[in-house]
Write a structure and sequence with these properties.
Order of helices and strands: HEHHHEEHHEEEEHE
Subunit structure: Part of the 50S ribosomal subunit. Contacts protein L32.
Number of helices: 7
Region (Disordered): 144-197
Helix content: 40-55%
Family: Belongs to the bacterial ribosomal protein bL17 family.
Structural class: alpha+beta
Largest sheet: 5 strands, mixed
Radius of gyration: 24 Å
CATH architecture of the domain at 14-115: Alpha-Beta Complex
CATH topology of the domain at 14-115: 50s Ribosomal Protein L17, Chain: A
CATH superfamily of the domain at 14-115: Ribosomal protein L17
GO molecular function, one term: structural constituent of ribosome
InterPro entries: Ribosomal_bL17 (IPR000456), Ribosomal_bL17_CS (IPR047859), Ribosomal_bL17_sf (IPR036373)
Shape: elongated
CATH class of the domain at 14-115: Alpha Beta
């Protein structure tokens, strides 16, 4: 029997392993995201991305090659007509793996592997967003320096009143969202944490809320969902303990 090159096999033989990965790829293309162990997710990623690369070619030979692994013709049709065109401008990285903790029972590390269907941002858009963020940070530092140089008697005559946190006026922020404060604290009225890399959000009391650093704040979960964010670990993991 040949020796595996990437650790122990998922099944009892190479054929069994190929069948396992083919079935998981078919489920991934059908449901767009599946939950499995971290080991299986890492072994599934190159197999699924290679099939997507074949589907992006779009010719008959590529379709026949994909049907050697996927037996459901409806899934193959979905892959060639929906998934592949959505990833035409993406050079790679068609899947995303998000760890969600250990499984109850055997304590196996679990993960969610999903297709990255979001459109690819052009380099010019990314540069403009970076320049706008740098300009906003510079403006905030200048405003803080001017406030520190104000006369002491003015500060004594007029009591300092903290302004209520309001959603940022930047056009790139969705409705009901607020940029992170420099102090690291949550803006008033914004308690839902968002992560822009994984497009996940965390509500107060959820499992990873305290250990998550917010890259964007939302006033409620509905605003996060409207902005395209999904609950971390699924809807069940985002229930607030009363």
């Amino acid at each position: 029997m040949p020796t595996p090159t990437k650790g122990p096999r998922l099944g009892g033989s190479p054929t069994h392993q190929r069948l396992i990965l083919a079935n998981m790829s078919q489920q991934l293309f059908e449901h767009k995201r599946i939950t499995t162990t971290v080991t299986k997710a890492k072994r599934l990623r190159p197999v699924a991305e290679r099939l997507i690369t074949f589907a992006k070619r779009g010719d008959l030979a590529a379709r026949r090659r994909v049907m050697r692994s996927l037996t459901d013709k409806s899934v193959v049709h979905e892959l060639f007509t929906t998934i592949a065109p959505a990833m035409a401008d993406r050079p790679g990285g068609y899947t995303r793996i998000t760890k969600i903790g250990a499984r109850q029972g055997d304590n196996a590390p679990m993960a969610v592997i999903e297709l990255v269907m979001e459109p690819v941002a052009s380099k010019s858009v990314v540069d403009e967003a970076t320049q706008a963020a740098n300009a906003a940070a510079t403006a905030n530092q200048s405003g803080a320096a001017e406030s520190a140089q104000a006369p002491a008697e003015t500060a004594a005559a007029e009591p300092v009143v903290e302004e209520a946190a309001a959603p940022a006026a930047d056009s790139d922020l969705p409705a009901g969202a607020h940029a992170p404060l420099e102090s690291g604290e949550a803006p008033e009225g914004f308690e839902v944490k968002g992560n822009r890399d994984s497009m996940k959000y965390h509500v107060p009391g959820s499992r990873w809320y305290t250990s998550t650093r917010a890259e964007i704040w939302f006033d409620n979960a509905e605003s996060a969902v409207a902005a395209g964010y999904a609950p971390a670990g699924g809807a069940a993991a985002q229930k607030v303990s009363e």
